[in-house]
Each structure stands twice: as C-alpha cells, then as structure tokens.
Design brief:
This protein is α/β, with parallel strands linked by helices. The protein folds into 2 domains: 24-140, Rossmann fold; 162-289, Nitrogenase molybdenum iron protein domain (Rossmann fold). Helix content is 43%, strand content 13%. The protein is built from 12 helices and 8 strands. Strand 5 and strand 6 form a beta hairpin. Helix 5 packs antiparallel against helix 6 (142-166). It starts with 5 loop residues before the first helix and ends in a 6-residue tail after the last helix.
C-alpha cells in the first residue's frame, strides 16, 4: 500500500479548495476604500493589480509570482499557514482571503479590529467574475473591474475563434495531469475544465464529476487523450513531462506514444483570476507546439 506524503496531500487539498465550487455568496464590505491590503492568495493579488489597486497591496503569500512587483512585497506565509503575527505587523486596513480556507483566520482578524473580506473560491468563470466585481465594489473601483471582465470576455472569444481556425477537423482531446503518484487529473468540476469548455477544447476527463480525481493508468488508456499537459510551478513541487512519461511507459496511450506530453505554467491554471485568457492561450499554444493543428 502506498503512503501519501503530507506535502502531496496538502498540495491536492489546496487545488481542491482553490478550484471547487462556491459555498456562499460573496459579501462586499462597506466604508472607505482601504489603503493597506494583505492578500492571502495569488489569484486575489492578481485581481487587485488588474483593477488598479496593486499599490495598496502591503502583504502577499510565499506563492505569489505575478505581477513582477509582488516579489518585493513582504510575505505573510504560505497558502496553508499565513502568519497572524506577520499580517498584524503590516498594519493592514483590509485582509482578503479565501472563504473556504482562511475563514477562521479572517474571523480572528475581525475580532482584533481588522477588516476582512472572504471571497468564495472560484469554481469556474462565473466565480472569477463574481470575485473581481466584489473587489471592485469594496475598493471603489467598479468601473475598472467591469473593464477587466469585458477584456476577459473579448480575449476568450478570440481564443475560441483561434481554436476553430487551428483545428478545422476538430480539436484534440486534452488531459491535465497534476500529479503522478497517485495519478491525479483535472476532472469535470473545476476552473480548468470550465476554460476548456469555453474555448472548445475537450477535457478527456470531463465525465468525472470531481475536481481532481485520482485515476489509474487504465483510466487514461480508456480515454486515450491526444495530448497530456502537466502544470509546472516556479515555486514548490511540480510534475515534469519526463517523469509522467516514465510513469505511463508501456501503456497504449496516444499522447505518450507520440510524445505529446508537455508542461504549462501552473500559476495560470491554478490561480483563477484575471489571467483567464492567458490560461486559455497556454492550452492552445501547447497543443500547437506538440504538432496538433494548423500553425
């Protein structure tokens, strides 16, 4: 029997929480817009910068990598263990976190007199829209938030049109594998699947109505994806195409036999937020780079 390491269990738990469905409506705060904000998730940080509130961000997490400016902003810890002491040391006027993950911490901060805004985790594109509008409302940047959303819609439409042009005979099926031991894939209930549906690229595991289901090699064989993508992260652990191909060696899988296994940026796929269209483009570009479609 294989033992799951704590690091992998924490990693998978975070993915499930980050890309699972909303549990409750987002409540936008009232009052003057805060000038010092601590963000407890990269997707929140990216959204703040996108609506023009990046200069108010006083604290981020260890996993924030975009935009480049965040590298100079103090960190309050990781996804799982943001430090209350570090947060308070930054004298924030508002702390924004994930309702399903940072709820208790945000409650403690409010008890200490610090305003907190819990955002519901983004399950799909509707959740992204809701979260960006909530931030715009709380920070008095409603117009900027709407402009960001209009840009996302326009760019996603353009990517979908590119998919149709690139694959005149129909797009290839694609499987996103997030880990190899145990084999864990992006199923049909998450942000990644929502992007793929929107741009018209079939998710080979969309029939599995779970966020990140485990799958044995035979499950991949039965679905036989044309392309397999593995998210690669700049920080922390990630799976390489070479390791996955070694894991699946010997199984009759079209993507493995043809060498159509590649890496895509994990921060695009796992940070639901304003870079939705970039995530969509990364899927299309990976497919083209592997020899699928018309360049």
């Amino acid at each position: 029997m294989k033992v799951r390491t704590p690091r992998f269990c924490n990693f998978l738990l975070f993915l499930i929480l980050c890309l699972s469905g909303p549990l409750s409506p987002v409540a936008a705060g009232q009052g003057p817009a805060p000038e010092r904000i601590v963000s407890l998730a990269p997707s929140i940080t990216e959204s703040l910068f996108a609506i023009g509130a990046g200069d108010r961000v006083a604290g981020v997490t260890d996993h924030d990598v975009f935009p480049e400016e965040v590298r100079a902003i103090p960190s309050v810890g990781g996804y799982y263990d943001p430090s209350l002491e570090r947060i308070l040391a930054l004298s924030p006027q508002l702390v924004i976190g994930i309702a399903t993950f940072h709820g208790k911490l945000l409650e403690r901060l409010e008890a200490l007199g610090v305003d907190a805004l819990p955002l519901t985790i983004h399950r799909g594109l509707d959740g992204v829209r809701e979260s960006i509008l909530s931030l715009g409302s709380r920070l008095n940047r409603e117009d900027e938030a709407r402009e960001v959303l209009e840009g996302i819609e326009k760019e996603l439409k353009a990517v979908r049109e590119d998919v149709v042009r690139t694959f005149p005979d129909g797009p290839p099926t694609l499987l996103v594998v997030v880990w190899h031991d145990p084999l864990t894939v992006a199923g049909g209930v998450n942000y990644i699947d929502d992007i793929m549906k929107t741009i018209g690229i079939p998710n080979a595991a969309s029939d599995i109505r779970y966020t990140f289901p485990q799958m044995d090699p035979e499950g991949i064989v039965s679905r036989d994806p044309d392309i397999i993508l593995v998210p690669g992260t700049e920080r922390g652990m990630s799976l390489s195409p070479e390791l996955l191909m070694e894991t699946l060696k010997g199984f009759p899988i079209s993507a493995v036999r043809s060498g159509r296994v590649a890496s895509v940026p994990a921060d695009l796929l796992f940070h639901p937020g304003p870079r939705v269209a970039e995530a969509a483009k990364s899927l299309l570009e990976a497919a083209v780079s592997l020899g699928c479609g018309e360049k």
